[in-house]
Structure formats: structure tokens, C-alpha cells
Amino acid sequence: MSVHRFSTTQVLPLSLEAAWEFFSTPRNLARITPPEMNFRIVTPDLPDKTYAGQIIAYTLTPVAGIRAGWITEITHVKAPHFFVDEQRKGPYRMWHHQHHFRAHKSGTEMTDIVHYEIPLGKLGDALNALYIRNRIHGIFEHRRKVLEQLFPQK
Predict the structure, then answer these.
(1) How far apart are CA 55 and CA 69, in angstroms?
(2) 124 near 118, Cβ under 8 Å?
(3) Is the C-alpha dihedral spanning 22, 26, 27, 29 positive or negative?
């Protein structure tokens, strides 16, 4: 079993505070997730803002019409610079997602760093090489395009 790493950086034409406002609002995740994943937040009475200790439950279709549950915990928050979500239950053996924000001359630089582990040992590593790594890249590429539409460069 291997822990895999994925990272991506995007500069948004937003102030640090505006970027934080958007990304620390849990319901905005549905706006930037590929529609074919059928992402739905199922946590009742979800607060408007992310906070450390927050538990959020979702359902989604990660692969070929297979519906799955996913529960994450927001484990660290330092507004407006970063927060971390970790899978507590879901399709990965381990998922640790860092969201970093810093002021940039063109707005805000947003960096995502994801460490993840696939179940099934060597078979999981093979599935990652054949499919999962590319799927994760595609999800973040979709997000990049949506964010460029929501927040176009001026």
C-alpha cells in the first residue's frame, strides 16, 4: 500500500478574504464538483462556515454509477490561510486534503495538497496508476474550469 500525493495550484482574481469566503462555505463544494459525480451534501442543518471539528456527510457517484457515502471532518482551520479535511468514512483508505490560500499580486493563490491511500494493497496501487490518479486530476481540472468561469480574469 502506498500513500499517493496530488497537488495543484490556481490563482484566482479574488482578494484573500473573498477566496476564503467562497471556499470555507461547505455548500460551494457542490458547485465545483463534476456533475456526473452526483455530489450531494446530506448533513442536516449544515452551518454556513467551515470550522475545526465539523463533520460533513455526502453522497456521490465516484465510479460507473456506483453510489457511495463519504464523511469528512474539518480537522484544522486557520482563516483565511488554510483548512484541512480528512475522510472519516468513504471510498479511500485514507484521504487528507489541505487547502492553502495566500495573497498573490493577481489575487489569491490557492494550493490543494491531497494525500490519499487506496484500499486493496497492491491491487489498489495498480487501480490508482490505471484510473484513480487520472480521475482525481480530472475532478480538480473540472474545478479549475468552473472557477475560471465563476471568477474570470479582468
Answers:
(1) 13
(2) yes
(3) positive
